Amino acid sequence: MSNMHRIHWFDEQIRSGRFPNSSWLAREFEISRRQAQRDIEYMAISLRAPLVYIAKYRGYCYEDQTYRLPHLYMTEEEQRVLKYLAHRYRHYNYDQSDAVKRVAHLLERFTLEEQQTGSSQLPVFKADPQQLQFFEILSHAIAESRKVHIHYRDHAGERQFIWCPLKMLSQFNADYVVGYGMDPLQQTAIRLEGMIHVQMINETFQCQTDGLLGSWEESLPVRKPFVAEIRLKEEQQTELWQGYRIREKQGQVHWIEFYDTDAFLQHLFISEWEELLSPSWLRRKLQQSAESIIDRLAVQHKANVN
């Protein structure tokens, strides 16, 4: 249920003169006292509710009886998307990172997140529905110290394993979860992008993460983008080429910035362009990928003929 439903209920209790408190709210909606208190703080800070705690009645009332809740409604799905975007903006460490993190802080206020601090030109992150779902499952697992079963795919192939998730982080436009399998001292970070399926299991783990997560708590390094020199079919009239920033252009030749090589190669396969001029290592990777696709198609064609 949305927190706005809880807030409206709390507002109704106040207007009825019942002096509700966090215990009432927690009991009514079967949530924790901490979550209930966060709802009340959200009313006071974000919704500007003139709440006053009356010790005599052990509950709240409005100091200004003319106050009305603003007409702000947000669904659970909208909150999940904002929470995910806040997470991505909070770990953004490229151009204008300070301004971007101020936006992250603003988004977190809407999602009731108690985390650290989001520009004139904001980066655009793809909110993939599957990764949003995995992000939510892993966040719950971290909060409840629950193990998860992960079906994972990477360059080594597919595998399944039990994982103890400790922390979510983003680096170089990719989401990771830090955790371990058996030994808490053998922590690694795995990408959400490689996950095929994630499921919480009814098994908890105990891990003192304060010291173990020290190395992951350090500020993520600021990474300079790669630059590809590409001749396009025509000169672009904006500063972006289908989402990628154009650093410089001379006629049809454009210098385009990118961070994730694999994602940029996929973009080149589906986009229209005339010639990839540089860098040479990117041309080689593109050629190798194209040859690999042609080889697979040839094998498939041969199998179909036979």
Automatic annotation (TrEMBL):
InterPro entries: CBASS_pafABC_assoc_protein, WYL_dom
Keywords in alphabetical order: DNA-binding
Limits of the WYL domain: 134-181
GO molecular function (one): DNA binding
Alphabetized Pfam families for the sequence: WYL
Signal peptide (residue range): none
Protein name as catalogued: Putative DNA-binding transcriptional regulator YafY
